Amino acid sequence: MRVTGYAEALASALDVEVDNGLVIRVVSIPALAALKLLAWDDRGLQDNKDAQDLLFLLQHYHEAGNGDRMYEEAFELLEAAGFDLPLAGATLLGHDTRVILHDDSLHALLAILADPRKRDRLLVHMTRSAGIESDMADKLLSQFELGLRN
Q: Does residue 16 sit in helix, strand or coil?
């Protein structure tokens, strides 16, 4: 099992109070997205759960406390995505993921997404039993990649 991205996941973890004074460290969503893509690359032939989890993150990042951000900090992303909140959220997730990653981890993610065979297989795994068209999953993944690159 590769550990690419683990250092960044630890560094970007959030402190969450779960009970009276009990604080635990929780992986951030951008770090989780990176780890899910890397895990899928490692074990995607055996299990497509990581791909489905990544799809969920891409579809819902705009709802994960980013509503105001979409209109205040990332309005240009929202506008570029034709005011489609999930697409703009996927771009924002890619951007937020890029911000926390070291160069080697970022290059590892981009290499996965740049490989046509892996990307096609990832899309199949993302949409299997997810109730979403492959075209929409591809758009979300492309927006995530755009955020990673810019």
A: strand
Burial degree of 33 (CB within 10 A; 0-12, 13-18, 19+): buried
Q: Which residues pair with 26 in a beta bridge?
A: 14
- DSSP, collapsed to helix, strand or coil, labels residue 83 as coil
Q: Which of 83, 92, 81, 13 is closest to 58 using CA atoms?
A: 92
Prediction pTM value: 0.92
Residue showing tokens 């004074």: 21
List, for residues 77-124, the tens digit of each pLDDT value: 999 999 999 999 999 999 999 999 999 999 999 999 999 999 999 999
Neighbours of 149 (CB within 10 A): 12
pLDDT tens digits along 8-21: 998 999 999 998 88
